[in-house]
Every structure is written in structure tokens, then in C-alpha cells.
Write a structure and sequence with these properties.
The chain has about 600 residues and is an alpha+beta fold. Helices cover about 30% and strands about 20% of the residues. It contains 13 helices and 26 strands. Helix 8 packs antiparallel against helix 9 and helix 12 runs antiparallel to helix 13. The C terminus is likely disordered.
Length: about 600
């Protein structure tokens, strides 16, 4: 039985990541990338789907865990009454290998430890062939299935059916190291890692990255951990930014809203870049622009809304029968059919992020501006096309209001590129189209009777995505129409003090109704409060949202207010970047003594 989602710790080497339960069990790990097939899949099933547990044998041992300062090493201190032991789990940075290392350190007395290893490659479908080398120091086993091999080193493991177990004692002052290294099965077995050197180098890397953080404001611990999460989800080589580390954790427990989030959404990645640039990480822009250029290379008309971590285009969605799903929530999906959707907002997010980078003094290259010109050509060619919206509805396409506003934002950013930064482009034409798009939104996407923007043209439903309109400068946060929209969201979408994305029972999104409040939407609402003079409301909502975080500061996608537990894939980049934006807004409002600042639209009414 897997742990609650918020009870999982997350560790990462900026290539992939592992989820470790409070019982010391690695229940999710895909090597060598986030979107590789799992070798530990107990998260989406049970222990027979693969796990690696390391914990004291004693019944009733209590654990306290924390992260190392400014890094992703997980430190778990076990109190056994008459003894105490510490386990450090980490994934090394920049060693050219795919490792998960576990160090056991005796603190007090003598503790009996138990290790249990169940390797299941290919999402639990492949039990590997295992060989043992008892003469090696430390003892070694090698497990192979198809293209994958891992070598496990540490206390001698013994086979029990299709699992391997070990028991060993650790005394005060003693250190025992365990390692798991993945490698392609056609290559030689890698040598043992040097724990001390690797740990020092990894901590140094994370510390140097963290030291570049320029954030100074409220909620510093939450903001700093969120920045670390965003870095961990950014692939160190390709620059692709995964939306989350997992697949198929349910938005509604027992329901079918289970999706694979281990890919790169142009929207989420662009928003991540904006947040990182604002807090001192200017180098991410070039990495991201090069990723983007490679991913969409070719005919601009073939643009997708999401890609694989290295820019792969084929993300064919299929159902895994080998895994029953988290707490029985099926289906378990690999791939994502949303990659084939048209979503009108994504070019807007990309263009806004790159325009913000220009305004921060990061100059465009000839290639990066050519890329943006190509994106604008795609946008113009699809102006009259309905889309599936930010929430990737699998029902009929519509003219989603937020998507149309992002088209406006893309055009506005392109105009700024020409007018403010001297780049070459048809600014007059873009300006004319921008103003036509605005007029269309105000005519068809606004309900005069209720004084609110609507989910899509002709609809009388509201949508939390409309909270993004002030963020991109479409309107001021205190614009009467925006304030009316906030009132409608508060009336229609609040569930136990947190906003839903939209009313699923009233929406033709192609799925059965029912889900939980979406954490990013809560942060968007808190940011809107801060930027429109409702600072006390912003702080109250921010406090409520931070209470939903795990003891390690991690956030998933949604929050079940009835069961008081996290739901959806984790850790979720969108939740963490929205947290940072909200902290920024509250900090600005506190400094100004009222509403925080926000850039105003250039194409206003």
C-alpha cells in the first residue's frame, strides 16, 4: 500500500527523481530520465511492482526527516529508544552516471537494519535476471532486463523468491554505504561510487546554485524550496522542464483523471523560466531557448503544446495494465494525448517569458527572434481556430477566453519586441490584430449581466484560469471587470476555501465530473488579492495553501479538502512556480503599503 502523496520525499539529480516514503521505501524511480520506464513502481501498485526499502527492523521506530541545507539530500533520523540511526539518501550531480546512494550512520547504541530490494523494470512488467558477486567488496548483485541493468552494492543480499533481502547492524559512529547504479545493459558494469567525494561535490553544486538566488521577501523557506524543485525538474543536459516527476497520481481518488506529467509543456516551462529569471537565474533563458529551437525545429505549423524531455514529438498515450494505479485509481497512463491538441494559450506564455527576459536585459539572438517570428506566424495562421483550453479538455473545442487573452499577450509581447527593443517585425499588423482580439474578447467572452469574464465564448461559466489575465497585462488587477470575475470565481468555484479550476459537472470536458481544488489556482487567487489591494485576504489564502504543503515543503497538483491530503502528480512545477509568484506579490504589496505593482497593457481599451 503506497503512502499518502504528501508523505513522499523527493530527491533528484536534475535528470530524474525518486520518491521515498516515510518507511524508507523508494516507491518510484525511473532511470535515466523522468520519462523513462519505472524500475520501482510501488507508488502505482504495491511492493510487487518494485521498491527498495531501507529501515530499522525494530517495531515502533519513529522517524524525523529533513532535507540537507539548500540541496536534495534526504536525511532521516530513526529513534529506536535504546539506539538511534540516520539514513542519508541522495542522487549525485555531474558524475556521468545514474546513481541512488544511501548512507546508514549509527548515532547511538546498536541498530538492526533491514534492506529489501524488488526490482521490476518496464513499469513492473519485467523481473530481471540477477547475478551475484560475493567476492566483490562490497558484495555486489547485477540485475538485467532487456536494455536496462543496475548494479547494487552494500551489505550482502540474499534471494527470497523474486526479492532480495539483507539484515545488518550499525553501531554508533559506524557508517555503511549502499548504492544502486543504472547503466545500459550492453555496457560494462560501472565501478563503485566514491561516497564522500560524490556527496561533497553534490552538496557543493546545489549550494552554489542556491547562492545565486536573489529572493528577499516573505515565506523565504517555501520560496527557496520551490526554486530548488523547479531546478530539479529541469533536465541538466537538454534544458527540458518536466511538469512533474510522476504519472497517473489521481486528481480524484478512484477516478479516471490520471495523466502522465513527466513531459515538457511549453506553458509550464515558460512560466518556470519567468520565475527563475526574476530570482537571479538568467542563464536558464539560453538553455530554454536552445531546447525550444530544437523541439519545434522544422515546419512551424507542426508546433505541439508539449514534448519529451529532449524534444521528442511522439508522446503516444497508452494504458498500462501492469500497474493497478495509486490506491486503485485507474487507468495508469504513459504518454499524453494532449500533445496532439491545439491550445491557443501556449504561444502567449512563451512570448511573454521571452519578452520578460528581454526587459531584464537578456538580449535576443538572431536565432531566438527568428524562432519567435515563426511562433507568431503559427499564431496568425490559427487565429480563427477553436482550442481545447488550458485544462486540456477532451470534449468539444471552444474559443476559451483565457486562450484568446494569451493570443493578445503574444501579440503584445511581439509588438514590445519591435517598439521597445528594436527588433524587426510587422509591429503595425501585430498591433492591429492584437486590438481586434481584445475587442473580440470583450464582445464575446464577457458576461455583462454578471460582470465577469467567462470560461469560453458564449458560456455562462467562470474559470480560475481567468485569474491569469492581469498577470500578462491584459487588464489591471483592480479593473472593475477583473474584480467582477474574482467575485464570480469566489461564488462559483470555492470549495472549503480553495478554488476549483472550473465546475466539472457543468463542463463538457469529456470526462466524468469531480476533482479537487487546484493548488496553482489558489496561488493565482492569492496573487490577485495582493495585487488588487486585498493584502489580508492574500495572506490568509497563502497561509491556507502553505498548510497543504508536505513537511518537506513539497506540493502536488491538487488538494482534497475533505480528506485533507494532496492529490495529483508530484512535485508539481506549476504549483511551486505559482507559490513563488504569490510570495513576490505579497512582498511587493507589503513594501508599498497596499497593492503590489503590475505592468499594464499597452493595447488597453
Amino acid at each position: 500500500m503506497p503512502a499518502r502523496i504528501e508523505d513522499y520525499a523527493f530527491i533528484s539529480d536534475c535528470f530524474t527523481g525518486a520518491l521515498i516514503g516515510p518507511d524508507g521505501s523508494v516507491d518510484w524511480l525511473c532511470f535515466p530520465r523522468y520519462d523513462s520506464e519505472s524500475m520501482f513502481g510501488a507508488l502505482l501498485g504495491d511492493e510487487d511492482d518494485g521498491r527498495w526499502i531501507l529501515a530499522p527492523e525494530a517495531v515502533g521506530a519513529t522517524a524525523h526527516r529533513r532535507y540537507g541545507e539548500n540541496d536534495f539530500s534526504l536525511i532521516t533520523r530513526w529513534d529506536l529508544g535504546d539506539s538511534e540511526v540516520e539514513v542519508i539518501d541522495f542522487m549525485p550531480r555531474n558524475d556521468g552516471e545514474a546513481n541512488l546512494l544511501r548512507r546508514v550512520r549509527g548515532i547511538r547504541g546498536t541498530a538492526l537494519m533491514r534492506e529489501e530490494l524488488r526490482l521490476r523494470f518496464e513499469y513492473g512488467q519485467a523481473v530481471p535476471w540477477v547475478t551475484k558477486d560475493r567476492k566483490a567488496n562490497p558484495p555486489t548483485i547485477v540485475a538485467t532486463a532487456g536494455p536496462d541493468s543496475v548494479v547494487i552494492r552494500g551489505p550482502e543480499l540474499h534471494a527470497e523468491g523474486t526479492k532480495h533481502v539483507a539484515e545488518f547492524t550499525v553501531k554508533a559512529g559506524q557508517t555503511i554505504d549502499l548504492s544502486l547504479t543504472w547503466y545500459p545493459s550492453h555496457k560494462p558494469t560501472p565501478p563503485p561510487p566514491d561516497f564522500d567525494r560524490t556527496m561533497r561535490r553534490t552538496r557543493k553544486w546545489w549550494t552554489e546554485w542556491t547562492d545565486r538566488n536573489t529572493y528577499q521577501g516573505p515565506y523565504p523557506e517555501a520560496v527557496h524550496r520551490s526554486l530548488l524543485v523547479l531546478r530539479a525538474l529541469t533536465h541538466a543536459e537538454t534544458g527540458g522542464i518536466a511538469a512533474a516527476a510522476t504519472t497517473s497520481l489521481p486528481e480524484q481518488f478512484g477516478g479516471p483523471r490520471n495523466w502522465d506529467y513527466r513531459y515538457v509543456w511549453l506553458r509550464d516551462a515558460s512560466l518556470t523560466i519567468s520565475v527563475l529569471v526574476r530570482h537571479g537565474y538568467r542563464d536558464v533563458v539560453d538553455h530554454w531557448r536552445h531546447w525550444l529551437l530544437r523541439a519545434i525545429a522544422g515546419d512551424p505549423q507542426d508546433l505541439q503544446i508539449m514534448y519529451g524531455i529532449a524534444g521528442e514529438r511522439r508522446l503516444n498515450e497508452f494504458v498500462l495494465d501492469s500497474l493497478p494505479g495509486y490506491e486503485g485509481s485507474s487507468p495508469v497512463r504513459v504518454g499524453n494525448a494532449a500533445s496532439l491538441q491545439y491550445q491557443a494559450d501556449v504561444i502567449g506564455e512563451v512570448m511573454v517569458a521571452l519578452e520578460e527576459a528581454r526587459s531584464a536585459g537578456i538580449e535576443d539572438t538572431s536565432l531566438s527572434w527568428s524562432l519567435q517570428r515563426a511562433l507568431m506566424n503559427f499564431l496568425e495562421a490559427h487565429l480563427g481556430k477553436k482550442d481545447q483550453g488550458l485544462w486540456e479538455a477532451r470534449g468539444p473545442a471552444q474559443f476559451y477566453t483565457q486562450g484568446r487573452a494569451m493570443i493578445w499577450a503574444a501579440l503584445d509581447s511581439a509588438v514590445r519586441g519591435v517598439r521597445d527593443h528594436g527588433l524587426d517585425g510587422p509591429a503595425d499588423r501585430w498591433e492591429r490584430i492584437r486590438d481586434e482580439v481584445r475587442a473580440d474578447i470583450e464582445r464575446h467572452g464577457f458576461d455583462v449581466a454578471r460582470n465577469t469574464y467567462t470560461q469560453y465564448f458564449g458560456s455562462d461559466e467562470t474559470d480560475a484560469s481567468l485569474l491569469l489575465l492581469p498577470q500578462v497585462g491584459y487588464c489591471a488587477p483592480d479593473d472593475p471587470r477583473m474584480l467582477g470575475t474574482v467575485a464570480a470565481i469566489e461564488h462559483d468555484l470555492m470549495q472549503d476555501g480553495l478554488p476549483l479550476r472550473y465546475r466539472t459537472a457543468e463542463s463538457a470536458d469529456g470526462l466524468p465530473p469531480g476533482e479537487n481544488p487546484f493548488l496553482a489556482c489558489g496561488f493565482w487567487l492569492a496573487e490577485q488579492y495582493a495585487r488588487s489591494g486585498r493584502l489580508d485576504d492574500a495572506k490568509r489564502l497563502m497561509s491556507r495553501l502553505l498548510d497543504a504543503a508536505s513537511d518537506l515543503g513539497l506540493l502536488s497538483e491538487e488538494y482534497d479538502t475533505q480528506a485533507q491530503r494532496q492529490a495529483g502528480n508530484t512535485p508539481q512545477a506549476l504549483s511551486h512556480l505559482a507559490l513563488i509568484r504569490t510570495a513576490d506579490a505579497i512582498g511587493e504589496a507589503e513594501q508599498s503599503g497596499g497593492a503590489s505593482t503590475q505592468r499594464l497593457p499597452t493595447g488597453g481599451r
